[in-house]
Structures are given as C-alpha cells and as structure tokens.
Amino acid sequence: MKFSKYHGLGNDFIIVERPDIDTQDVVKLCNRRTGIGADGVLLINPGQSAPYSMRVLNADGSEAEMCGNGLRCAAAYLVDKSLWHDQTLMLETGAGTLQVDMKDGLVSVHMGAVHDHGEKNISLDSQIVTGRFLSTGNPHFVLFGEKHYHDRSKLGPILCTHPAFKSGANISFARLNQDQSIDLVVWERGCGFTQACGTGATATAAAAWVMGRIQVGPTRICLPGGPLTISGKLNGIIMTGPAVRVYDGHADCLQ
Questions:
Q1: Catalytic pick from 30, 191, 197, 222?
Q2: In sequence order, what DSSP letters do the residues of the chain get, joined into one string?
Q3: Is 67 assigned a catalytic role?
Q4: For this structure, is 73 an active site residue?
C-alpha cells in the first residue's frame, strides 16, 4: 500500500488514497514501534460536494468527524501530488465541506461556525469539574486554569469517555498568558495527548472569546508542537498553521 506521512506541528498522519481500511490495519499502521507510527490515518477520495473528501481514522481505529491539522495535511498532500493546482481548495469532511487556503507556506482552514453549548459541570467522585463545551466539527470540553492544566494526565482519559458526553469528547486544557496567548494541551478521542490539535485550538480560542477572557480577534494558541493562529469570528472562524510532508513510502503489511 502506497502512503504519505505528513504532520501539522507534530500531529502526524498516514495519508492514503482508498475508500476504506480495516480497523485492525489502522491500529497496526499507527503503532509507533511495529508500524509506521501516527496519530491517525487520513483517507482521501473523490467527494460528492467537493472534488475531494477526507475521512479521519484515529490511531485506535475509531472515526472522527473532523481534524483541523489533518485537513491542513490533506490539502498539502493534494497540492504536493499535483491533484490540485489552486491556492484555494474545497474539501468534504464529516463536518461538512470546508475551504482551505494555502499562502506563504501556511495553510488556513475555514472552520465554519463554532457551536457553543455553554458551561458544563461534570461530577468526578468528590469534585465538580467545570468547563465550556463547544463543537468545532468535533466536540471539545475546554478547561481553563492552572489546576486543571496541572492535572491533565489524570483528567484527560476520565473526562474523554465520561457519560456526560454521548459520543465522547476531546478535552482541552488551557491556561491564559499575560500576552493574551493561550497554552494548550489536548487529550484527543482515540489517541490520547497529541502534539497539536487544530479543532481543539479553535474551540479554546472560541471559548476564551465567548467567556470574555480575551477579545475576539487573532489569537495565538501555543501547543506542544508549536503555535496555531485562530482568527475570524464565532460564525466564521479560521485556523492557520503549517503542514509538512515527512516522506512517501510503501507499507508491505497491507495490499
């Protein structure tokens, strides 16, 4: 099986052009010791509402509605493979058809409208965890504050599968800096902590805006793998960052 490996700030993906792939094969490919190693697999195919579509399969084989870093990588792949020749692309995802712009070595994804579901209180044994629940194509529960940020390794896996979230949720641990930038670490459904999360960065900036923590406008989100810029407005938010080709290859374990 021919594949390409890309990453967006260390959030890495195996990209293949095929309509489907077995769950166990996804797990095998994403294994960092015995496989290629990745946070997920992106399946690129002809779309119905756009020239191309992208499906996102997490490292555990589960499917995600959308992936911001993945979409940037998919767009870069299409351009690198000469499958698309314009600087603006339309790509079909599980969260709808989205516009992607490529300029000056960066990729901007028009994420559409953010859906704010308001404050949510989650009961965990003897404590109540309060965060903001939003959807940016994927569901995100955003927690601000040093305490939650410090406790992220314990809270991430517990909150991700909490019954309060019917389909699970990505858990974003954020802390606001004096310069109005935001440090962020995200526990993602299906793969745990990642180096970067585009939908998480989008949700966190939106949460900070609606909660009045910072003014609406370009916001720098600092992830372990590097920064993303979130701009626009709640009804039309834009995520900008890099997408890098690592290498092309052939996986002998799959046909």
A1: 197
A2: -EEEEEEETTEEEEEE--S---HHHHHHHH-TTTS---SEEEEEEE-SSSSEEEEEEETTS-EES--HHHHHHHHHHHHHTTS--SSEEEEEETTEEEEEEEETTEEEEEEE--EEEEEEEEEETTEEEEEEEEESSSEEEEEESHHHHHTHHHHHHHHHT-TTSTT--EEEEEEE-TTS-EEEEEEETTTEE-S--HHHHHHHHHHHHHTTSS-SS-EEEEETTEEEEEEEETTEEEEEE--EEEEEEE-TT--
A3: yes
A4: no
